[in-house]
Amino acid sequence: MPQGSFHAVLFDCDGVLVDSESITNGVLRSMLHELGWQISADDSFRLFVGRALRDETAIITAHTGFVVTDEWLDEFRRRRNEALVASLEPIPGAVAAVHKIDELMAGKIACASGADLGKVRLQLGKVGLDEVFAGKMFSGMDQARSKPAPDVYLAAAAFLGVDPARCAVVEDTVPGVTAGVAAGATVFGFCPPDSPAHHPAQALLDAGATHIFTDMAELPGLVNHAAG
To answer: Whole-angstrom Cα distance, residue 108 to residue 103?
Structure first.
């Protein structure tokens, strides 16, 4: 049985398990440039990281006059997936941390992402985490609401048969932390130094994270200590 006060650990995917945000956001920024919006990298991260692109189409229309279509979103996903297959790497220390926490939690772990399930599966397969999360991958796009709403975390907890209040959530963005807090979970905010793709530590704390850490190697001990 899982140890301590946590009965499950729920991981975000992008920026927590895989170093994908710069890749994905770079593809998006290129496509926005093609539409005439010369958005900077900093602004693109600020506006889009941690949120489902389908929920942010009004921002694109406001800056470009282009009404986002399903075809445009499909083309974004196609280009994004090609770039991920070519360049994706795990977050340093994440693979080992997941395996240690999987053992600690007796398999009560899940990946709960705001991204589409195809992307989640592609990414976890690319970094060798597909087996440990097999059958336990959840997408906010399959829920009524995506992050910052709590739906995907509630779905993951329900599948595992665990009270959300007994879950630890691992997140790296304000929308993700907001979702975890709204689900009733304890949120660990991942904030590696000098990373523009991750939200600042204070922003994560302000959103309700109760623990901040900067290195994935710290996470198993941090979860175990907090659960004790």
So the answer is: 9
Who contacts 61 (Cβ-Cβ below 8 Å, separation ≥6)? 67, 68
* Residue 186 main-chain phi, psi, to 5 deg: -90, 125
Greater confidence, 198 or 174?
Answer: 174
Helix (H) or strand (E) holding 187: strand 186-190
Amino acid at 83: A
E strand or H helix at 111: strand 109-113
If one counts every other C-beta atom within 10 angstroms of the C-beta of residue 195, the result is 18
Max distance between CA atoms of the chain, in angstroms, equals 55
Residue with tokens 């087996």: 131
Name the one residue in this structure whose structure tokens are 């995917």: 13
Phi, psi of 71 (to 5 degrees): -65, -40
DSSP state of 144: S
Q: 167: which strand partners?
A: 8
| Mean pLDDT value across the chain | 93
Alpha carbons 204 and 7: distance in angstroms, whole number: 23
> Tens of pLDDT along 143-172?
999 999 999 999 999 999 999 999 999 999
Helix or strand holding residue 211 (H, E): strand 211-213
The predicted model scores a pTM of: 0.87
What backbone torsions phi and psi does residue 70 show, to the nearest 5 degrees?
-60, -35
What Rg value do the Cα atoms of the chain yield, rounded? 17
- Whole-number Å distance between alpha carbons of 32 and 85: 22
